């Protein structure tokens, strides 16, 4: 079945125990709640892992943008485990490297100014990808493709 391009499924990493999860989740919230409220759906990693029908439907029906936080790429692995293809990825370490940002001293329990800057940069990069996915074209300007 061909996926609809009227919306994008956004899959953030869970990042339990690390700062990357709260950052990618915040990026997901900004994309879904503020920038693309009618054109995106936020996939919940625990719901997807436990086969909640709504989240399964999101990744089946719409192009999937994964927001991975670390080298383990657990968000990508979960989507693939559910039998779906990842359409695009924005990878936090690539953003940090490109923007020369460090998260040293930041805490996952209370994101500070460095984390907020990373959120802003990652949100901007993800928005560019979403625009391309919504246009139905190939995604060119992303950090990594699958």
Descriptive account of the structure:
The protein has 146 residues and is α/β, with parallel strands linked by helices. The chain has a single domain, classed as Rossmann fold. The protein contains 6 helices and 4 strands. It has a 4-stranded parallel sheet with strand order 2-1-3-4, sandwiched between helices.
Q: How many structural domains are formed by the residues?
A: 1
Largest sheet: 4 strands, parallel
CATH topology annotation: Rossmann fold
Radius of gyration: 14 Å
Give the terminus-to-terminus CA distance: 19 Å
CATH hierarchy, class: Alpha Beta
Order of helices and strands: EHEHHEHEHH
Fraction in helix: 40-55%
Task: Kindly report the spatial arrangement of strands forming the biggest sheet.
Answer: 2-1-3-4
Total DSSP helices: 6
Q: How many DSSP E strands?
A: 4
Low-confidence stretches: 140-146
- Whole-number mean pLDDT: 90
CATH architecture: 3-Layer(aba) Sandwich
The chain-level structural class is alpha/beta
Indicate the multimeric state: single chain
Beta content = 5-15%
- Overall 3D form: globular
């Amino acid at each position: 079945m061909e996926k609809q391009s009227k919306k994008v499924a956004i899959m953030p990493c869970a990042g339990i125990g690390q700062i990357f999860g709260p950052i990618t989740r915040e990026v997901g919230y900004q994309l879904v709640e503020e920038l693309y409220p009618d054109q995106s759906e936020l996939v919940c990693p625990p719901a997807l892992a436990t086969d909640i029908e709504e989240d399964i439907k999101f990744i089946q029906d719409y192009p999937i943008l994964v927001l991975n936080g670390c080298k383990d790429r657990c968000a990508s692995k979960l989507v693939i485990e559910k039998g779906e293809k990842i359409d695009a990825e924005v990878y936090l370490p690539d953003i940090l490297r490109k923007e020369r940002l460090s998260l040293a001293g930041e805490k996952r329990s209370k994101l500070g100014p460095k984390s907020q800057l990373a959120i802003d940069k990652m949100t901007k990069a993800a928005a560019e990808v979403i625009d391309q996915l919504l246009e139905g074209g190939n995604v060119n300007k992303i950090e990594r493709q699958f």
